[in-house]
Amino acid sequence: MSTGTAPLAHERSTRHEKGLSKGSVGLLGSVVIGVSTIAPAYTLSGALGPTAAAVGTHLPAILLVGFVPMLLVAVGYRQLNRAMPDSGTTFTWVSKAFGPWVGWMGSWGLLAATILVLSNLAGIAVDFFYLALAQITGNDAIAELTRNVPVNVATCLAFVAAAAWISYRGMEATKVVQYVLVVFQLLVLLWFAAAAFGHVAGGTAFEGLVVRAEWFNPFGVETFSAFAAGVSLSVFIYWGWDVVLTLNEESKDSTTGPGRSAIATILVIVALYMAVSLAVLSYSGVGSAELGLGNEDIQENVFAALAGPVMGPFAILMSLAVLSSSAASLQSTMISPARTMLAMGHYGALPAKYARITSRFQSPGYATIAAAVIASVFYAVMRVVSENVLWDTITTLGMMVCFYYGVTALACVWYFRREAFRTSKAFLTKFLAPLLGGILLLVFFVQTSYDSMDPEYGSGSSIGGVGLVFILGVGMLLLGIVVMLVQYRRNPAFFRERFETTELPVLD
Question: Which parts of the sequence are annotated with region: Disordered (predicted)?
């Protein structure tokens, strides 16, 4: 470990390079990967139902409210990336601002969120894989294979392995896959939205609601608990844009490009979400019967139920869109945990083997495989423990995202505290925006954590009278503390550094 004085400026730029492929991702490619990671087709299919169940017809309002802290936090991320372009993002930035202990836990929140979503993505991919096969062959029995636990888990492992193989081969292989799959799912989503509005206009929709101004009023939600639950879910809907920042060491313009890509990704997604959510809400309503969003039987997979009635014989395209969306995101999402673990291994926060770079593909090979294995094991266990694994992991994921986004945003405030008041622009971008975004997300995290102790929270699954969502969320954070203490015993040097005034240590 390097524990001496800070290196000279020209040395700093090389001491923290990790061997990743430089200049392999441009602005367009970065935005495509960001959209792919968010996976709009998969995300909306799995989250529209639970969010509507929490807030009813105020679904558009909650999506917009969830967008606000995302945008505020993205502004802070952009400033941190300009000052410290590093693939470790949350880990590196929070360690510099608050020290190694908080930085380690912030990165654990990111890793927990990505592991949760990797398992969830694989689960959605399995569902739509067998649904698509059933639609193609005309044999409805094939769609029921997803309910067979051994078959489901085996198929899930195959998807994860394929995604890990592509990620292992580096960014060039990643980009080729993503361009095709992202464009396809966006076109199908817009087709679905147009068809749903067509049914509403023609009087053939299930509910046929007219868009009302009150749908956009977040203060119409009955309780703050419901509001916090809805926002936590909507945060999950937007989550994933920060993957473009983990690519900063591989971007063509590492200091400013990733920040612009993050903002552009969020704006594209919020426009798409408004169109699709309004279409679904107008078509289905929030009732509990048949195709209503309040029907628990369709909430875990809204598009599986609505594609046929809305798109008719072209419903197969939606199945393929969600399948491709979840498969593409499964692959692109591995970018974030792999590069976070790479940075943690590089700086000594994890064993040095996590810092290994493949010489042929210039990718974090060991960390990629580790992320795939952990996600696979987690999914297999959760599929046995909870019949509603998708709903529970989505809700838990929202909690994890609120935690690590909130901590990272406040790290921006603290890191730039001495220069934030020099100009009005610095005040807005380095202090006010990240401060508000960070506080909002941490408030939602605390409220959702408290509410999730109720056994009826989420899908209603519980262990020992405590809600499964709470056990997953808080349990994963406690596990992070245990793992951190184990790592402290193995390599105490990392945790003894004074990151506020010195450069991050680098393994020699």
Answer: 1-21
Which helix (H) or strand (E) covers residue 171, if one does? Answer: helix 171-202
> Contact at 8 Å (CB) between 323 and 130?
no
pLDDT, tens digit, 9 for 90 and up, residues 5-35:
333 333 333 445 655 656 656 777 788 888 8
Residue 60: closest CA among 248, 223, 293: 293
Whether 340 contacts 246, CB under 8 Å: yes
Higher pLDDT pick, 317 / 256: 317
The two structure tokens encoding residue 63: 């999506």
User: Does any domain span residue 501?
Assistant: no
Give one DSSP letter per residue of 30-48, joined into a string: HHHHHHHHH-HHHHHHHHH
Q: Tell me how far apart the alpha carbons of residues 21 and 18 are, in angstroms, rounded to a whole number.
A: 9
Please indicate, yes or no, if residue 282 is contained in any of the structural domains. yes
User: Residue 283 falls within a domain, yes or no?
Assistant: yes
- Of residues 36, 316, 375, the one with CA closest to residue 176: 36
- Which residues make Cβ contacts (< 8 Å) with residue 107, sequence separation at least 6? 88, 90, 91, 94, 340, 344, 349, 404
- Is 91 within 8 Å of 349 (Cβ atoms)? yes
Determine the structural domain holding residue 96 and report its residue range. 9-495
Per-residue HEC secondary structure of 428-471 comes to HHHHHHHHHHHHHHHHHHHHHHHHCCCCCCCCCCEECCEEHHHH
Number of helical H runs and strand E runs in the chain: 21, 2
Does pLDDT of 416 surpass 80? Answer: yes
pLDDT of 174: 61
Alpha-carbon distance of 133 to 257, in angstroms, equals 41
Please give the torsion angle defined by the CA atoms of residues 100, 106, 107 and 112, in that order, rounded to the nearest 10 degrees.
140
Model pTM?
0.78
Within-domain flag for 505:
no
CA–CA separation, 249 vs 340, rounded Å? 12
Domain count, the chain: 1
Task: Tell me the CATH number at 435.
Answer: 1.20.1740.10
> Please, are residues 358 and 342 in contact by the beta-carbon 8 Å criterion?
no
Radius of gyration of the CA atoms of the chain, in A: 22
Listed in sequence order, the residues at least 6 apart from 77 whose beta carbon sits closer than 8 Å to its beta carbon are 89, 242, 245, 259, 262, 408, 409, 412
| Contact (Cβ atoms closer than 8 angstroms) between residue 342 and residue 367 | yes
